[in-house]
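I am still getting used to backbone structure tokens and would like to learn alongside you. To get us started, please write out a protein record for me. Start from the sequence, derive the backbone structure tokens from it, and show both lines together. Once you have written the record down, we can walk along the chain together:
***
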Amino acid sequence: MQDKYTAVWVSHSSMSDFLECPRAYYLKNVYRDTATNKKINIMSPALALGQSVHEVLESLSVLPKQSRFNTPLIERFHEAWKKLSGKRGGFFSDSTEFKFKSRGEDMIRRVSREPGPLAKPAVKIQKDLPFYWLSEEDNIILCGKIDWLEYMPDDDTVHIIDFKTGKSVEDVQSLQLPIYHLLVHNCQNRRVTKASYWYLEQDSGMVEKELPPLEDAHKKVLTIAQKMKLARQLDHFSCPQGDGGCHACKPFELILQGQGELVGVDNFGNNVYVFDRTSRDDERNSMIL
């Protein structure tokens, strides 16, 4: 019998965490603070930037296309930014916040000038968090949010679009498109015929990618999900770089040691911590949504 409450839930972000460092995956996705019973999350300037831009653009999909731009996008962005201003967004200096906010404003203005698919009909999956049973036998559920689904009226199909707010190009080995293809195929009725990354800060803009075959995507994703389930069953989550840790798990280890600053609780009920990273390159912590 299916029971989503006992199932292992996996997503693009949790799989990426696991593949990079099982210990980081554990501390971010499994561990709960013994005092509050809440998971822990770390906010950084790059994450705040990505979250704010995504909030503005994704919110348009629930609006009729003729009214999506009644409120200027830059106004929506400024409202979204207020939620993550200062330490809540990992900003420890006005200059750092100004730099990241300016980048966000530039992205939003670029989209406002050339909205492309955002001005066209969109498909909205009727679930707050789209999910389906990746494997009933293994009791594994695949979940995730897709940034935008453009409706293609000529053949009644959909186009998957993922917004990119970072400066780096998505790795060709990324699981993102295989996972999104599976989710969209299984969570709504229209066929997927196209998938693109939209690099909001780059001249390249919309970059169409080859759709991974569903059967291949399923096998690849399920294999990794099974390894994640086994790690949870064995309670075995080791950092590939040993006891010294790596850049992915070290910040979480510091929180367990009492370091980091607790600045609040996010929309998922997780405790949010920040570190003073003013002297570090935060871009490597870019968020994928």
About this structure: The chain has one domain: 8-285. The helical segments are 12-20, 22-29, 45-58, 73-82, 94-113, 176-187, 214-234, 250-256.
